[in-house]
Amino acid sequence: MPEPLGAEPEAQDKENTMQKKTLVPAIALGLVLISTAVLARGPFAGGHPQEMALGMLQVMADEIGLTLSQEQTITQLVNDARLASAVDRERLSQLHQQMRDLTEDPSQFDQAAVEAVADELASLVSRMAVDGAQLRWEVRQVLSEDQREQLDNVRRHSRMSHFRFTDGQPSEL
């Protein structure tokens, strides 16, 4: 709320500082929640990067001619990643529920608790993003150079704009 005319500058500075202290965490929390929602959503069932990779496996098999050996290797990479991420996916679900519980309390807003959950969410989402990037890199290592080029071309011309390459580097599997 704006201070009445003639309010002391110190009071205005204090109010501005308090507004900043509450606005910045709220924006950060919103960004974390949006980013986790985007990560959880995907063009393939389940929306997890590993499931997206299995969906892309079919695209790769059809479009760039994966050998049976390559399909098996990629499937194993994806399955291993799924098993390795099970604990993180469960924790992500728990944190989302904690956040919902914290924001549904009509009697109070526990900013410290919300910030703690938001910090853990941010760390977890970051780790999961790195793991997903590593999986995409590992899958690409199974492909021949020609297959990687074909995959890049398929993605550039695909209706799945989510799978674009920037400066020759994959942005998503």
Kindly describe this structure.
The protein has one domain (9-170). The radius of gyration is 22 Å and the shape is elongated. Strand 1 (165-166) and strand 2 (169-170) form a beta hairpin. Helix 1 packs parallel to helix 4 (111-142) and helix 3 (68-103) packs antiparallel against helix 4 (111-142). Mean pLDDT is 73; it is low at 20-46. It has helices at 9-40, 49-64, 68-103, 111-142, 145-156; strands at residues 165-166, 169-170. It has five helices and two strands; from the N terminus they run H-H-H-H-H-E-E. The protein has a two-stranded antiparallel sheet with strand order 1-2. By secondary structure, it is mostly helical.
Number of helices: 5
Counting structural domains, the number is: 1
Mean pLDDT: 73
In order across it, which strands form the biggest sheet? 1-2
Largest sheet: 2 strands, antiparallel
Strand coverage percent = under 5%
Radius of gyration: 22 Å
Instruction: Measure the end-to-end span.
Output: 47 Å
- How would you describe the oligomerization state of the chains in this entry? single chain
The residue fraction in helices comes out at over 70%
The string of secondary-structure elements, in order, is: HHHHHEE
Structural class: mainly alpha
Give a count of the beta strands, DSSP E runs of length 2 or more. 2
Low-confidence stretches: 20-46
The shape is elongated
Spell out the blueprint of helices and strands.
Blueprint: H1 9-40, H2 49-64, H3 68-103, H4 111-142, H5 145-156, E1 165-166, E2 169-170
Antiparallel strand pairs: 1-2
